[in-house]
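Dear support,

I submitted the protein below through the web form. The confirmation email said the job was done, but the results page showed an empty box. After a refresh the structure appeared. I'm attaching both so you can tell me whether what I see now is the final result or a partial one.
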Amino acid sequence: MPVAAVRRAQWGVRTVDARLIELAADNHMLVTAAMVRRAGLRRDQWQRLRRADVWVQVVPGLWRHAATPLTWEMKVRAGSTWLGRTAALHGATAARWWGLDGSDTEFVEFLVPRSRRHLPPWLTLHTTSAWNEGDILRHHGIRTCSATRAIIDMARTESPRTLERAIDSAVSLRRSSIPTLTKRMQQLAGRGRNGIRLLRTLLLDSGGESFLERRFLAVVRAAGFPRPQTQIIHRRRDDKVMRVDFQFPGTRVIAEVSGRRGHTSDRDRQRDARRRNSLQGDGWIVLEFTTADVLDDQAYVVATLSEELAPRHRRSGVHAVRQ
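What the results page shows now:
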């Protein structure tokens, strides 16, 4: 073939390859066989590009350009597309997709029904006989186990600290709740399911929105006090809304724990002070404990609560609702 003809053929391949890259950009940098045809590549041209490792297979039926880094999200999206409807992100992968704290895994794992256990091992697959569509949600276009199911599955392999962070952030982000976790855990509990005992222990002090709030609940439980309600919203007559960390049922006692974050500027301190004054003006006793109190001087926390949780304190008339 004349040199000019060869150059024209090469240019033609480069042109349609560029078109394919444009199509990939609209699909999270992944291309399908249909996109290859839409770009105008003949079968022999496509095979030549693949043999030259210009386009690299991610999973069966999906490719990325060699110049495009293989990211965690790309693997998630490729796996989800390949596996289809009866598959969902699993465990720590699902937790990271939901944005839960402590979920920084680089692995991509999927849950599929036991009937699909013979799939080729392109990805890490977990099978279950307890496949339940109620556990599956769609988040950012991907089918994933709910945050609740992800945490329960993580309990088999993750450390207590990782699970604590996942539970607390799931509650904080309203991805799950302690009653929801407890109910689903009881439904899934059975012979052969590891981690349930650990999860039951960790849930005893769950319900706050941070490590510090969890430790406060542990102090309260160890001291034998009634468990306080968490994250209570107070609505005043002027429609002002205030949320408090803990409120002890049957009393007029509110407890707040203040960490190092979120209370650093003058405006933050002013807002906190005005909020505290407003609650006290409505007849509530507001106790505030610092990180040092909760972690290093638990005797002070217990003594202060003991003094204020005396029977003489009665529930305030201010309307409060659980969030």
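Response: this is the final, complete result; the empty box was a page-load delay. The longest strand covers residues 229-235.
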